[in-house]
Amino acid sequence: MTVSSLVDADLFRALLRRHAAAVVVITAPGEPPAGFTATSFTSVSLDPPLVSFCLAHTASAWPVIAAAGVVAVHVLAQEQEHVARTFATRGIDRFAAHGAWAPGPGGVPLLDGVLARIVCRVVRRVEAGDHSIVLAAPETGDHHEDLSVAPLVYHDGHYAHLRRAA
Hints:
Layout: H1 9-16, E1 21-22, E2 24-28, E3 34-38, E4 42-46, E5 49-56, H2 62-67, E6 70-75, H3 81-88, H4 94-98, E7 101-103, E8 109-111, E9 116-128, E10 131-143, E11 152-155, E12 158-161
Antiparallel strand pairs: 1-11, 2-3, 2-6, 4-5, 5-10, 6-9, 7-8, 9-10, 11-12
């Protein structure tokens, strides 16, 4: 094991590559709407229900997310790597490229065919370095009923698939 006393940007990235995370797409209403792929999504509190995600201030989606009152979090199934790649691609109309979505509450774009979907009211944004942490309260949600469908995971710089125990 390599031990270092100084955590610079390169070491920080290397350390976090060891952490596996579920892949989500977060969307927000706007003109045009915004959507991006993230692995920073997490539950925060059960009472009241709160979730969070982080986004860089330099991200193309940040101006819309910074003003949004509602967002949708879409947990991707392992067969949806193409969706993750679409919403991670810069310089394209991500919604036109994806195609399978419809407006939901407050105009938030809702992607079709995902493992789980949570529509949330944004309650706070907290600046944290070059990112902001967005805290949001889930208001509605739905999920895939088949428990054998596994989530898409990101690990060591690659999309990964879980093997289900027999």
